[in-house]
Specification:
Immunoglobulin-like; elongated
């Protein structure tokens, strides 16, 4: 059976297009990542705040690092944005905790909304080049006296 040059070219082009479409570029983000916020948060007598939740992530791209950013907002204008301690991305579900000292915090017991973001920071040398949110959760929480 004889295959025409046109058909052979079309087959080769289709194979090349499919391999390009289904091959992730070097440094691509892994998509098996998630984050959640616990329904309780705590404020201490000195005003320091503790937020927490769970996360799991795969290793960041070779050009980046992973971090967690948590933002708390209360209806009367109290707002706080803090980072969690260093996280480990190995596919295991882990607990995250973010603490803010009370010196500059205006948070009190009561209702609030907490948004947690799992972010990939792409680096250019030692300087952040971009920050991308790869997972997010937003929950109504109760802030309790600790």
């Amino acid at each position: 059976m004889r295959i025409s040059a046109r058909r052979m070219t079309l087959t080769a082009f289709s194979a090349l297009a499919a391999s390009t479409l289904f091959t992730a570029p070097a440094g691509a983000t892994v998509f098996n990542q998630a984050i959640s916020v616990h329904h309780d948060a705590y404020v201490a007598e000195d005003g320091s705040v503790t937020l927490s939740g769970m996360y799991h992530c795969e290793q960041a791209s070779p050009m980046g690092a992973m971090q967690i950013k948590a933002t708390l907002a209360q209806g009367d204008g109290g707002r706080l944005s803090i980072g969690a301690e260093q996280i480990v991305c190995d596919g295991q579900e882990r607990r995250w905790v973010a603490n803010a000292p009370g010196a500059f915090v205006n948070v009190h017991p009561g209702r609030a909304v907490v948004t947690a973001e799992l972010q990939e920071v792409r680096l250019s040398g030692l300087v952040p080049k971009s920050v991308a949110t790869v997972a997010q959760d937003r929950q109504d929480v109760e802030i309790r006296r600790h």
